[in-house]
Design goal:
Elements: H1 3-12, H2 16-38, H3 49-60, H4 63-96, H5 98-112, H6 120-127, H7 131-155, H8 159-167, H9 172-206, H10 215-224, H11 228-260, H12 264-267
Amino acid sequence: MTRTTVSSLNAAAHTGRGRLVLGLLGAVTALLAWFLLSRGSDNPYFPPLEAIVERAWEYWTTPEGVDNILASLRTLSGGLFFAIVLGVAIGLVIGQLAVVEQTVTPSLEFARAIPATALIPFALMLFGVSDEMKIFLIALGCIWPILLSTADGARGIDTTMRDSARAFQVEGIQFQRYVMLPAVLPRILVGIRIAIPLSLILMVTSEMVGVQQGLGFVITQAQATFQILTMWSGILILGILGFLLTFAYSLIERRLLRWADPRRDRES
C-alpha cells in the first residue's frame, strides 16, 4: 500500500460518507472471515455461519422472536435514558461546583468501583424479577462514562466564554442552555458512545437471571438445552443490534455536533 493510498484513506475517514464506507467494509470483512473459518465445520459448538443465519431467520422473525427482541430494546432504552439524564445532570453540577466535586468524589469512586453485575442480587431483592430490575442495572453501569465525561467537559470550559456570558448577563438556565450545553455536548456524546456497548452487555447479563424474556434469556436457555444454533443466532442478532445502534447513534451525533458548532458542516 503506497503512501498516497494511505493518505487517501485517512482523508476519507474524516468525512461522513468515508466513515460509512470504511465501517461497512470492515463489517463485511469480518463476516467474510467468519464465513470462511466456519465453512464446512462439523464441530457442533462452532456451526457454519450459513446455518446460523438460517436459524436466525427461522426463529427471530417469528412473533416469539420479535417479542424477545422488543423486550430487550425496551429495557435497554429505559436504562440508557435514565443513565443519560442523570449522568448529564450530575456531571454538570460536579463540573461547575468545586465544593460539590470535592464532597462527592470519594463516594462516586467507591460506587464506580463496584461492577453493576455484582449488584444483581441486590437489584432482585429491591425490584424483583421485573423490567425495573434490568433498567436499574443498565442505568447503574452506563451512568459513569456519561457522568465523568460531562463533568470533565464542564470543568474545562473556556474561561473567556464564561466571562463573555457574564458580561452579557447570560446567567442561570440561559447560561446552561446556550453556553454550557453546546460547549460540553461533544464530551457528553463521547460518554454516551462509550455507554452504548456497555448497555448491550448489561442488557444481556440482566436477562440471564430469573427473567423469562429477552435476548439474554433465549441465549441462556438455548445453551442449557444444547440448542447451539439458536444460541449462536442470538449472538448474531446481538451483534447486528449493536451495529445498528452504533450506526444510528453516529448519525444523531453528527447532527447534534452541527447544532453545537455549525462550522462542522464545512468539515464533513
